[in-house]
C-alpha cells in the first residue's frame, strides 16, 4: 500500500503517523506562565535528540487558532520540566490531558505533588521516576505549531530505579514507563527486554568470512 501524504487531509495524516511511529515516550511537561501559574500536560511528540550536548525535543500543537498553554508558557519563560510517566501514574496523567478552562491547576485536579527544581524556577512531578530540568535551546514555529529543542540542565532520578550509582546505570524495567500508541487512547508498557550489542566492523567481517552473516541477518526476536 502506497500512501502519498500530500493527498490526505491533516486528520488522516495524523492518524497514520501516530499509528505507525510507536511506541512514543510521554513528556509530562510542567510549565509556568508570566504570573507564576502552573500548567501540567502530557505530550507524546517527544524524544531525545543528543547526549552531548544533552538535548530533547518536543512538538506541541495548537488549540483552535491559538498556541496551547504549554507552548506559550515555554516561549515566555524559556524553561520547563519533563517528567516521565510510570504505569501507576496513568490515571493522573490522563486527567492532566483534560481540556480544563484557563486558571485551573491540573496538578491539583490530578492529585500531583510538585517538587521544586534546583536549576530553574519550574517544578517537576514528584511521583515520576525520572524528571528533567530544561532550558529552551531553540524554538521553531512550523504552521503555527511549536517544535522545541531544549537543553537538559539537571535530572531527578528516584533512588529505587538507580541500578548502579557509580556507573550511572538506571534500571529501565523498574521505571515501568508508559508509552503512547495509536488513537483512541492506546498505551503500552515495556515488553520483555533483550540485549543485542552493537557489532564492530571486525566482528561483522569475521561473520561474513565464517558464513554466519546470513544466519545473523535472518535472526529475529520472539
Task: Indicate the topology.
Blueprint: H1 10-20, E1 24-25, E2 27-32, E3 38-43, E4 46-51, E5 54-60, E6 62-63, E7 66-67, H2 69-77, E8 79-84, H3 90-96, H4 106-109, E9 114-115, E10 124-125, E11 130-142, E12 145-157, E13 162-164, E14 169-170, H5 172-175, E15 179-180, E16 187-188, H6 201-210, H7 213-218
Antiparallel strand pairs: 1-15, 2-3, 2-8, 4-5, 5-12, 6-7, 8-11, 9-10, 11-12, 13-14, 15-16
Describe this structure in words.
The chain has helices spanning about 10-20, 70-75, 90-95, 105-110, 170-175, 200-210, 215-220; strands at about 25, 25-30, 40-45, 45-50, 55-60, 60-65, 65, 80-85, 115, 125, 130-140, 145-155, 160-165, 170, 180, 185-190. It is α+β, with helices and mostly antiparallel strands. It has a single domain, classed as Pnp Oxidase, Chain A (Roll). GO terms for molecular function: FMN binding; oxidoreductase activity, acting on the CH-NH group of donors, NAD or NADP as acceptor. Pfam families: Flavin_Reduct.
Amino acid at each position: 500500500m502506497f500512501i502519498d501524504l500530500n493527498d490526505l487531509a491533516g486528520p488522516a495524516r495524523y492518524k497514520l503517523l501516530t499509528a505507525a511511529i510507536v511506541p512514543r515516550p510521554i513528556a509530562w511537561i510542567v510549565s509556568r506562565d508570566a504570573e507564576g501559574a502552573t500548567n501540567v500536560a502530557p505530550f507524546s511528540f517527544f524524544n531525545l535528540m543528543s547526549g552531548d550536548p544533552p538535548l530533547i525535543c518536543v512538538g506541541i500543537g495548537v488549540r483552535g487558532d491559538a498556541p496551547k498553554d504549554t507552548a506559550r508558557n515555554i516561549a515566555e519563560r524559556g524553561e520547563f520540566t519533563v517528567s516521565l510517566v510510570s504505569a501507576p501514574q496513568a490515571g493522573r496523567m490522563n486527567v492532566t490531558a483534560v481540556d480544563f478552562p484557563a486558571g485551573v491547576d491540573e496538578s491539583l485536579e490530578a492529585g500531583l505533588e510538585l517538587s521544586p527544581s534546583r536549576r530553574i524556577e519550574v517544578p517537576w512531578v514528584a511521583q515520576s521516576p525520572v524528571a528533567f530540568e530544561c532550558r529552551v535551546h531553540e524554538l521553531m514555529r512550523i504552521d503555527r505549531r511549536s517544535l522545541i529543542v531544549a537543553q537538559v540542565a539537571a535530572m531527578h532520578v528516584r533512588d529505587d530505579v538507580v541500578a548502579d550509582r557509580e556507573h550511572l546505570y538506571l534500571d529501565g524495567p523498574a521505571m515501568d514507563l508508559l508509552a503512547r500508541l495509536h488513537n483512541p487512547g492506546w498505551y503500552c508498557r515495556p515488553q520483555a527486554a533483550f540485549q543485542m550489542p552493537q557489532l564492530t566492523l571486525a566482528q561483522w567481517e569475521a561473520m561474513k568470512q565464517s558464513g554466519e552473516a546470513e544466519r545473523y541477518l535472518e535472526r529475529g526476536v520472539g
